[in-house]
Design a protein that fits this description.
Elements lengths: L1 H25 L3 E7 L18 H8 L2 E7 L5 H10 L33 H6 L4 E6 L5 H13 L5 H6 L1 H16 L1 H5 L2 E3 L2 E4 L7 H15 L5 E6 L20 H23 L6 E7 L8 E2 L3 E2 L17 H4 E7 L8 E8 L3 H8 L15 H4 L10 E6 L2 E7 L8 E8 L22 E11 L18 H17 L27 H4 L10 E2 L2 E2 L9
Parallel strand pairs: 1-6, 1-7, 2-11, 3-6
Antiparallel strand pairs: 2-10, 4-5, 7-10, 8-9, 12-13, 13-14, 14-15, 16-17
Helix pairs in contact: 2-10, 5-7, 9-10
């Protein structure tokens, strides 16, 4: 009798085990996406840096798949992040710039993703996922100050005009410059969902607070499929001065910040692993674009990243240094450890990859990315990106072509931003390169490089040095025409008539002064506007 009961109990335990195993197999995977701001591909150990310590990021690469040709859809934060979250070139969302307005500056501005757009988070929510965006967008104050000085300076054209419009100029100066003067209070805030919880935010505690929010979200959702997009404030300026990391690196404050990034990535990985989620969680590490070459001063020194052997950097059009970024995927048991993929891939590939893994088969709008899983798992050897298009604002700046059956990777540049001073490698006068007018040089015929043999884009090809020269330009031109046919409207606006490579879809542009500039009614505020202010005690982790 006793043995019979024991046998029956053993059967029940085994049956229960089978049920649990079945549930684990059927459960959808979790996603932890980690994006650094302005990180150069040459800043990370597993991509060749031997002086900055990044052991936790390097560990992700050794335990997963490293992409060596991972490409941002734009060399600047706003269009790059829009493309990342939607799987489409930013142009399709109206987030390509026509002139000096290149990024969204104010929380109180009306620009942003139009209602017709969707993100991977929205798609996954429809399939049972709990989603979280832990993010802090830090602005470079020089951008705001430059605009303010420019606007206020308009009223000093001549003495008589200044006198005639004295009172009007005072009023206009106050209205236009107020957002810049109060930028730290109005723009540097902490929100939880739709509620402002701290204004202005305490910069010194921000890294640990962001990390704590990310860890808490993972812990709360151990039993449910989740998507976490952890977007770090590092290593964008202003750089942090966290005591635990200050002075510890060999590269000043920038190096200190990068080693703090690595520590934070390690803490997120530790949280996933300690909760037993590793085998059911796809972890991803990247940057929104390349390092900012021009960002430096005499006190702190270099404040921008290092892009390794690649030419150019942030905001410099289609040069590799501004768009080639780290790309690391870890998923134990699903992705082979230590695998390296040298095929062209894009930040826009995350959208269709997440959709595929979430078993989202519903129709969607025009996509510019591809599901990466066959490539990551080694089921295919070739990327589906035969052509990739590189935009500088709304202007088609360059195209890369990976011919079928060939290791070659050709890059055609139609125009390039003018470096100032010439040959210095950056746009030091304006702090970021611009994409229009006298700020660029058009090339006829286009500049042509073979990135397979010349990844630093230092040796332009000619008909004498490249037998396929004419074919490459012809195939690229045909690809451009096919691509433009997928845009809803090829009619250039008044601002772009002089630019042969301008593309403007019918969706309303979000990168105009009207959309960018601060509007009081849209300003997030805790307390009584305009005297906003509140304080939240940070959670200890």
């Amino acid at each position: 009798m006793r043995s019979h009961l024991l046998a029956h109990l053993l059967y029940l335990l085994l049956a229960a085990g089978r049920d649990v195993t079945g549930k684990e197999v059927d459960r959808k995977p979790n996603f932890v996406l980690m994006m650094v701001d302005d990180l150069g591909i040459g800043d990370v150990g597993c991509y060749g840096n031997d002086t900055i310590r990044t052991p936790n990021i390097d560990r992700l690469a050794s335990e997963g798949v490293k992409l060596t040709q991972h490409i941002a859809a734009a060399p600047l934060c706003t269009p790059s992040r829009a493309a990342f979250m939607t799987g489409r070139y930013a142009l399709r969302s109206g987030l390509g710039s026509t002139g000096r307005v290149q990024v969204l500056l104010f929380l109180g501005g009306s620009g942003g993703l139009p209602p017709s757009e969707t993100t991977f988070a929205k798609r996954l929510q429809q399939h049972g996922y709990t989603t979280s965006l832990v993010v802090s967008g830090s602005l470079s104050l020089f951008l705001a100050l430059q605009v303010c000085v420019h606007v206020c300076g308009l009223f000093e054209v001549s003495l008589w005009l200044f006198v005639a419009l004295f009172f009007l100029s005072i009023l206009a100066t106050a209205v236009w410059c107020m957002p810049f003067k109060l930028l730290p209070t109005w723009n540097c805030i902490i929100m939880r969902n739709q509620e402002v919880t701290e204004q202005p935010m305490t910069v010194e505690t921000l890294p640990q607070r962001l990390l704590g929010e990310a860890q808490s979200f993972i812990k709360r959702n151990v039993d449910n499929p989740f998507l976490l997009f952890f977007s770090l404030a590092h290593v964008h300026t202003p750089l942090f001065k966290t005591p635990a990391f200050a002075g510890k690196s060999r590269h000043g404050r920038y190096g200190d910040n990068l080693e703090e990034v690595d520590w934070m990535i390690g803490k997120i990985t530790e949280t996933v692993d300690s909760l037993g989620l590793a085998n059911n969680t796809l972890m991803y590490f990247t940057s929104d674009h390349g390092g900012h070459l021009e960002d430096a001063d005499s006190i702190i020194g270099q404040k921008g990243g290092w892009n390794g052997i690649y030419k150019g950097g942030k905001a410099m059009g289609g040069w590799e240094g501004g768009i080639r970024v780290p790309g690391i995927f870890r998923w134990p048991g699903r992705l082979a450890a230590g695998r390296v993929v040298d095929e062209p891939t894009s930040l826009m590939d995350l959208y269709p990859t997440l959709k595929y893994l979430a078993k989202d088969t519903q129709p969607d709008r025009q996509s510019d990315g591809y599901n990466l899983m066959p490539l990551l798992e080694g089921k295919v050897d070739r990327s589906e990106h035969e052509f990739m298009f590189h935009y500088c604002g709304i202007y088609l700046n360059a195209v890369r072509w990976h011919p079928p059956g060939s290791d070659s990777l050709f890059k055609v540049h139609f125009f390039t931003p003018n470096f100032s001073p010439p040959g210095a490698g950056g746009c030091y006068d304006t702090k970021v390169c611009l994409c229009h007018g006298d700020h660029v040089t058009h090339h006829s015929p286009p500049l042509l490089y073979d990135l397979f043999h010349d990844p630093s884009e230092s040796r332009p090809l000619t008909p004498d040095t490249e037998p396929r020269y004419a074919e490459i330009l012809e195939q690229t031109a045909k690809a451009v025409e096919r691509h433009r046919n997928t845009l809803t409207n090829k009619q250039a606006s008044d601002d772009t008539h002089s630019h042969p490579n301008a593309d403007v879809p019918s969706v309303q542009s979000q990168m105009t002064w009207d959309k960018i500039l601060w509007r009081p009614r849209l300003q997030p505020c805790c307390g009584t506007f305009p005297f906003c202010g509140c304080k939240e005690e940070p959670t200890h982790i």
